[in-house]
Amino acid sequence: MIDIGCNLTHRRFRADLAEVLHRAAGAGVDRMVVTGLNVDVSEKAERLASARPEQLRCTAGVHPHNARTVGPRSPAALEALSHRPVVAAIGECGLDYDRDFSPRPVQRSVFEMQLELAAARRMPVFLHEREAHDDFLAILSRWRPKLVGGVVHCFTGQRAALEAYLALDLHVGITGWICDARRGAHLAALIPTIPRDRLMIETDAPFLTPRSAPARRNEPSFLPYVLRAVAAAVGEPEAHVAEQTTRVAERFFGFAPS
What we know:
By secondary structure, this protein is α/β, with parallel strands linked by helices. The longest helix is centred in the middle third of the chain and has 18 residues, at about 105-120. Helices cover about 40% and strands about 15% of the residues. It has helices at about 15-25, 40-50, 75-80, 105-120, 135-145, 160-165, 185-190, 225-235, 240-255; strands at about 1-5, 30-35, 55-60, 85-95, 125-130, 150, 170-175, 200. Helix 8 (about 225-235) packs across helix 9.
């Protein structure tokens, strides 16, 4: 399996990253995509992935929470990172109006900056949206004809949002949110409507730990919990869903076929 979104540069993995990667492999998660959240984290993600190119890819971008940190050197730094062989997508980029850690006009500007880079470099985008659907969709719709592709990471929205993203020919990433019956039960009815060639799975580790997992800190080895819930939702064997989502992720992120 491929975990398409994990924050392996996070401080919570600092003490035992080697063990985390070993446990992931033991759980059948043989490849992962490390998420870039700002220029500094993206550079760390690139170094980590470059040290393990058979196992890791990464993204390079600025999360909307961090949009306020973008400075004059940021666009050039991201552009330089985009040329590195292990950098497979631009992002995590988008809009987050749930917490407004960065001013909304700044979020929108930084989002468009990254879409412009992705279009110029012919790279897919790794997307984030929370409580900002209308603005997110309006911006993304303008840029979509220039983009080679994109994945709405950690989709937790409602049917109308999903249909809008699918209409833009975007991929969709599902996390352990689906394992939480209190807040993710609605996803079980939506996942079967996602075309199989656009569905991928992820942990977003160390966040969004599946409720059924044996520890509080999420990590890539818990991806099978997500797989199990997704397979139950689509009514297909876990092995079949694992194979399908792996093939989709291989094509999207440029991994060699296993």
